Recover the amino acids of this structure.
């Protein structure tokens, strides 16, 4: 009777490795969904916040570009060291900023601001993908720990039952020692897995701008369905959403604006100027005034001068800078075309990788793991009935855990492929 109860207990433990096995998705402390981590990173990531300061700098340059040149006030005075002659002068010069110079400056600064905004948007795209990749690594490491925990729990229960059988003499003592070694090996394996999991969780912290003592966890389901747009429409979505492609277009517009700015700098410009001059002068002789008094010969002169100063672009029409800016425009056009090709290739490659990972997951889940779990159940039941050895059970357990860890890697590849799809089409949130 006792032997029958023991066998039933072991079979109950074995049942946990049957086709209905599903590793529990236990959330870690401080666990949040991957999308929440992305939202947090877009707000608090230090490098992204530093990159956003470039936008404020570009806004300042845009404001400066809209300002006209300042007028210049000139004051001077002259005194004859040996005589009484002196002169005071005040002048004002007002640059006209002709030739469309202001409009050209504003156009360049406006496009520079747009490029900086696109650069930040592309940083956000890459940061969101990096956070999701790291979240997938955390999920994979957590699943490995759960797989090992479940197998450890089953082996510990079996170890207790075998100990009872060894005590009664129903099982050789060697079986208990063999299982003890296997349990110890799994404990050591779990220790390494836990260390890796904690390390990956800690690596999430700086990405989301946190420095809390407790590491972050992720609550998403690595095995669950992943929502992605249809492959047929993905390229069109990418061409509309990818900030790096948009940035290439903006850089082309910026280069064109710089060409126009250099041309404006080579056109005619002028400045208005006005000058008032007061001069006192005389001679070292005396003469009679209208009243017949003898006085020094001196007089005061007041003079006003107005005019215009014109820059004549006869020799220097800014030809060199125009040529350089034109070459930069052609380079920007070629880079945009190259980026367009890269975007199309990245989308196609990401979907091909995802489809392959999805097929691999289906094969593992349906054809490999279910069979392996059933095989372990049969071998363990055979052992409890005295028709096999414990070494057969241990070998099958090792095979199963190797397959489970391989399945985790397949799930991680599937997750990474989905993240690559999102990154390729330009989706951030």
């Amino acid at each position: 009777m006792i032997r029958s109860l023991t066998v039933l207990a072991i079979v109950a433990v074995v049942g946990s490795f049957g086709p209905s096995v599903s590793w529990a998705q236990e959330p870690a402390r401080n666990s949040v969904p991957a999308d929440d981590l992305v939202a947090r990173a877009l707000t608090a990531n230090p490098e992204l916040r530093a990159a956003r300061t470039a936008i404020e700098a570009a806004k300042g340059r845009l404001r400066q570009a809209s300002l006209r040149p300042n007028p210049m006030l000139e004051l001077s005075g002259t005194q004859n060291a040996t005589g009484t002659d002196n002169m005071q002068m005040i002048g004002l010069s007002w640059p006209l900023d002709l030739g469309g110079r202001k409009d050209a400056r504003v156009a360049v600064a406006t496009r520079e601001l747009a490029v900086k905004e696109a650069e930040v948007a592309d940083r956000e795209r890459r940061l969101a993908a990096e956070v999701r990749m790291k979240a997938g690594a955390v999920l994979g490491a957590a699943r490995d720990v759960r797989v090992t925990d479940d197998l450890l729990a089953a082996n510990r229960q079996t170890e207790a039952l075998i100990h009872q059988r060894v005590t009664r003499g129903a099982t050789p003592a060697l079986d208990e020692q063999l299982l003890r070694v296997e349990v110890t090996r799994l404990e050591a394996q779990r220790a390494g897995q836990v260390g890796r999991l904690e390390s990956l969780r800690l690596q999430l912290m700086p990405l989301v701008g946190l420095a809390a003592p407790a590491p972050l966890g992720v609550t998403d389901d690595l095995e669950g369905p992943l929502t992605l747009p249809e492959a047929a429409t993905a390229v069109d979505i990418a061409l509309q959403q990818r900030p790096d492609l948009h940035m290439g277009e903006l850089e082309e517009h910026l280069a064109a604006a710089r060409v126009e700015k250099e041309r404006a700098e080579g056109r005619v410009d002028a400045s208005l100027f006005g000058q008032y001059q007061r001069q006192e002068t005389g001679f070292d002789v005396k003469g009679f005034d209208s009243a017949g008094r003898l006085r020094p010969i001196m007089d005061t002169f007041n003079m006003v001068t107005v005019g215009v100063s014109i820059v004549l672009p006869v020799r220097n029409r800014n030809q060199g800078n125009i040529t350089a800016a034109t070459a930069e425009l052609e380079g920007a056009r070629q880079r945009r075309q190259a980026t367009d090709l890269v975007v199309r290739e990245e989308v196609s490659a990401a979907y091909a990788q995802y489809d392959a990972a999805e097929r691999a997951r289906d094969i593992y889940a349906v054809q490999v793991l279910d069979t392996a779990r059933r095989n372990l159940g049969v071998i363990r039941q055979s052992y409890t009935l005295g028709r096999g050895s414990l070494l057969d059970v241990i070998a099958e357990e090792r095979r199963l855990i190797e397959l489970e860890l391989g399945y985790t890697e397949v799930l991680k590849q599937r997750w990474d492929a989905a993240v690559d799809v999102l990154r390729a089409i330009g989706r951030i949130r």
